Amino acid sequence: QVQLVESGGGLVQAGGSLRLSCAASGIILGIYVMGWYRQAPGKQRELVARITNIGSTNYADSVKGRFTISKDNAKNTVYLQMNNLKPEDTAVYYCNAFRFTNDYWGRGTQVTVSS
Description:
Blueprint: E1 3-7, E2 10-13, E3 18-25, E4 33-39, E5 46-51, E6 57-59, E7 67-72, E8 77-82, E9 91-99, E10 102-105, E11 109-114
Parallel strand pairs: 2-11
Antiparallel strand pairs: 1-3, 3-8, 4-5, 4-9, 5-6, 7-8, 9-10, 9-11
């Protein structure tokens, strides 16, 4: 059974930092494309950052220079370091693992940034 479990969310003031973690079980994280998505109230889910099996990364324009995605294959965990957080970053953040027809999601972790 595949599980993606996010952690690290919380309430932070604007300008602060948080580090999200996504621990995977039931899959070999290193062969998947791993992504962080977010969904704010009343908005569609959007891609925040993605890292491929070979470590290539891409980011949404809104987070470039502030967020960094990384992974530790030995720990089967992917991270999202979020710096200089803004109120518009407030959302539920979801971890995703994708490979061919396999598409798995975590249950999400809430990030709230106060102004």
